[in-house]
Design goal:
two-stranded antiparallel sheet; 75% helix
Amino acid sequence: MEMDLEERGGICLGDDDEHSVDIDAQECPPGCDPALWRRRNYTFGLRNTALVGMVLVSLLFAAVAASLLLRRHPDKPPLQLSVSVVWTVSLLLCSYFSFWIYTLSRTMGAIAILFRVSYGALLAFAGGALFGPTTGATIVHLNAAWTAGLLGYSLAQYRLHTGSELAADEAAARTPPSRSEGQTLTVVHCVFTASLVTLALAARVVWLVFFPSYSDENSHFMVMELSILVWTILYFWAMLMVPFLLHEALVSMDFMMRLYFYYIASTVPSIVCLLVSTWLFAYYFGMQMMAMAAFFGYILAVHEHCKDILARDKPLLTDLELGDLVQEADSHQSEKTLDLVNIV
């Protein structure tokens, strides 16, 4: 995931920064215990003011979404109503996520965020015009998942910036200098298996985009299936990144297995949602897809920071080691010269 090197109101983590820069600890009053001050002013690694603002903005977006979705349109056919629900929910979620990406991100400005989020919506407009309304609804739903992933990435950046997230440092400490042949074969086998599963699931996603399997009036079932497919793809790759790249510093493999069983068990309460509304049933799985996308973006940000730590901590050659290398090269060159003279 590429990053813009534009700084907004904070210190951007670069090669000269510490592994976890505790910028906000500088606001601690003199004579106050920094740990106590942090416990009083931070919750889940976020400033209490930011957390309160997040709750208030969330309530505002929830009210706007409810007012838009509960409006009656008796003059519109079921097709337009079905597709308009997907567009309304997806664009509202993209707007909501973009607001918090701008608030939390340390490396992306407003223009960069607008570009990253809007091109998915523009692609959805084009797909709807070229291939049909269901194609446009499918793409805009995927764009909401992409924006959720950016939000998770930005949240990890914020927590790493304030020093609240230490998983990157722990993962760097757990990273061995090299892997054995058996470990390498294990990684290759897991990546190969995950790639095959991903290709099969991604093929079905592409089929849903360009060759809709549901009637236009049944877009809610398309949302449900697409959400399950995307969740499964992201889960498979998160299962690989957690042990092999982060070395279980962020979450354990037991947590990942519990997450899988939770997702299977979550089909039971989804029946209640189905009895209430088919759209509530569809977006029950849609919200889980976006939560997994945010979690995957969080993992990517932590892994990227871990790579920066390993690159900075990579030992450089000392003058003595450089001298030994130069001496070895000179002796090797002298041997070649002697051999050439003997031949002549």
